[in-house]
Every structure is written in C-alpha cells, then in structure tokens.
Amino acid sequence: MKLQVAMDVITLDAALTLAAQVAPHVDIIELGTPLIKSEGLRAVTAIKKAHPDKLVFADLKTMDAGELEADIAFTAGADFVTVLGTAGDSTIIGAVKAATAHGKGIVVDLIGVADKVSRAREVTAMGAVFVEMHAGLDEQAEPGFTFQTLLDDGETSKVPFSVAGGVNLTSIRDVQSAGATVAVAGGAIYGAADPAAAAAELRAAII
Q1: First-residue to last-residue Cα distance in the chain
Q2: Residue 49, class by beta-carbon neighbours within 10 Å (0-12 exposed, 13-18 middle, 19+ buried)?
Q3: In this structure, how many other beta carbons lie within 10 angstroms of the beta carbon of residue 89?
Q4: pLDDT by residue (tens digit) across 55-105?
Q5: Which of 123, 177, 183, 189 is 20 to 30 Å apart from 153, CA to CA?
Q6: Residue 42 — pLDDT band, cuts 50, 70, 90?
Q7: pTM, two decimal places
Q8: What are phi and psi of 181, to 5 degrees?
Q9: How far apart are CA 160 and CA 146, in angstroms?
Q10: Which residues have C-beta within 8 Å of that of residue 45, sequence separation ≥ 6?
Q11: Rounded to 10 degrees, what is the CA torsion of 119, 127, 91, 69?
C-alpha cells in the first residue's frame, strides 16, 4: 500500500516546506484543492521539479471540461488528476483520454456520491486508475459519520481504491486490511508538530 500526503496548505512556500519534510516517507505528494486554487498549477510544476522521483497528485476535483482540465494539469507535471464521481460520464471519459495521451492517470473522487460502490465500478470501467473513498472535512464533522463506511465501500467495490478522510496512526492498519491501494493522510501529517516524524510513523505502520 502506498502512502499519500494531502497538502491542504494554501501557499506554495508552505507546500514546498512540507513536501521537503515528508518526501522521504511518502510515495505520492498531493496538492490539495485549496492550494491549487490559491497558487494555480505553477504549484504542481514546482513540486514536481523539487521531487521528480515522487508521484504528484493534482486534486482538481474536475466537474466539467474533463479532457481540457486534465491536459493542463498533466502538462504542468501532474501524474494523477482527480475528477469528481458526480461528474457526467463524458467528463470522466474525456479526462481519461487526456491521461492516456500523457501516459498518466485519472483518479475519481467519490466525495458526495451516495452509492460509492456502484459508481466506483462504473468509473473504473471507464479507465480510472483507482477511485478515492473520500469523506471531506465537512462530512467528517457531521453527526453519524463513521470512517468504517469508507473502508467497507472500498472493500465491497473490489476495484483499486484509496481512502481519504480520517487516515491516521490509529486507522492506517485498518485501511490496509481493507485492501486499499493508497492511504491518504492529510491533517495527521501537516497538522502534526513534526510532520516528518508523523509521516515516518505512518510509513512504519504499513506492513
């Protein structure tokens, strides 16, 4: 299982600092949506230049113009680009077309999708390299949210998946046991007093 850091910071300087701290311990460096909205795709280029040996994940959360937006991000240096699972099939298919042209990958983020299992199977058939079983910050704060639901949906879908939204040192073994391809840790790393040590601990917990 790969470890992905979600950098939900909002300045390029902060992103470069965080990436330098945690890069030795992670496989994938994700530029969060707030960072890309704040700094633009120049941030993707800068992170890829600084860490050419890492997979760079541009969390665009594309909802329309799939081929165009994916092409722009891949040209900027991204290895993975996200499209929302609530987007139309044509948007996802267009993004996959761009990914194929660049030799890169589309990840479909299932945040806000009611039936994650069915949609995961559909978008994988369209060419997504994996899906993200994702609960956003707002959803995690809602009464009744359980992290286990994400794991259950991923395991039931029987397609390659990542888990984002509650991955930490306590839960990462459960993520791996559920069969996830990637564990995405955000606040557990960037919110720690020592992000490098936090990333190293998560890495060590992966069997």
Answers
A1: 8
A2: exposed
A3: 11
A4: 999 999 999 999 999 999 999 999 999 999 999 999 999 999 999 999 999
A5: 189
A6: very high
A7: 0.96
A8: -80, -35
A9: 21
A10: 76, 77
A11: 130
